[in-house]
Design brief:
With 90 residues, the protein is mostly helical. It is built from three helices and no strands. The protein has a single domain, classed as Ribosomal protein S20 (Methane Monooxygenase Hydroxylase, Chain G, domain 1). The protein has helices at 5-40, 44-63, 69-89.
Length: 90
């Protein structure tokens, strides 16, 4: 346990941010897993409808600095590429 007042405050802030980061992480992972599951089940139309939701989750993670800007762009690019390849197979 911290003894100094500034360290106590830093601990409080870290705990508070951890809650938000976990929430953001779960939202992003859930969206990505959901779209991947739909694509692997050959439900391309549903996956296309879910794409804006995935983009929103990634953009919010970037906005809150949970992930870096280029990492967010990479996630969006790869998931779109994955969806487009699945469309091409069908």
């Amino acid at each position: 346990m911290p003894i100094i007042a500034s360290a106590k405050k830093a601990l409080r802030v870290a705990k508070k941010k951890a809650v938000f980061n976990t929430r953001r992480s779960n939202a992003m992972e859930k969206a990505l897993k959901g779209i991947k599951k739909l694509v692997t089940a050959n439900k391309i139309k549903e996956a296309e409808k879910m794409l804006p939701e995935v983009y929103t989750a990634i953009d919010k993670a970037v906005k809150t600095k949970f992930i870096k800007k280029n990492a967010g762009a990479r996630y969006k690019s790869r998931i779109t590429l994955f969806l487009n390849k699945a469309k091409g197979k069908k």
